[in-house]
Amino acid sequence: MPDNDDQIHPVINVEEFIGKQVGRRKPRRGLTLEGSRIRDMIAWRKAFGGVGVPKGAFRFNSHEEADHWMTQQLATSAAKRS
């Protein structure tokens, strides 16, 4: 393909420093645990309690079965707390 002077050629300056910042983070609104200390986290746990659902990966045959299991776990943990 012939090189015509009418075509626009991109100009690239290889000595130019290209920064990596694309945008800026916006602080979240509402409650955050960012910057909290361990005693603050313990206070949150005492105030609201834990979820009470066992950790791990569980397999269910349907969403309904998973919802039923979750409801049972939440009810059991609520009964233990009261």
Structure description:
Helices cover 37% and strands 0% of the residues. It has helices at residues 38-48, 63-81. It is elongated and about 80 Å long.
Produce the secondary structure layout.
Blueprint: H1 38-48, H2 63-81
What Rg do the Cα atoms give? 28 Å
- Distance N terminus to C terminus? 81 Å
Shape: elongated
Name the poorly predicted regions: none
Mean pLDDT: 77
Fraction in helix? 25-40%
- The percent range for strand residues is under 5%
Structural class: mainly alpha
Q: Please trace the helix and strand order, writing H or E for each element.
A: HH
What's a concise summary of this model?
Helices cover 37% and strands 0% of the residues.
Which key phrases capture this entry?
82 residues; mainly alpha
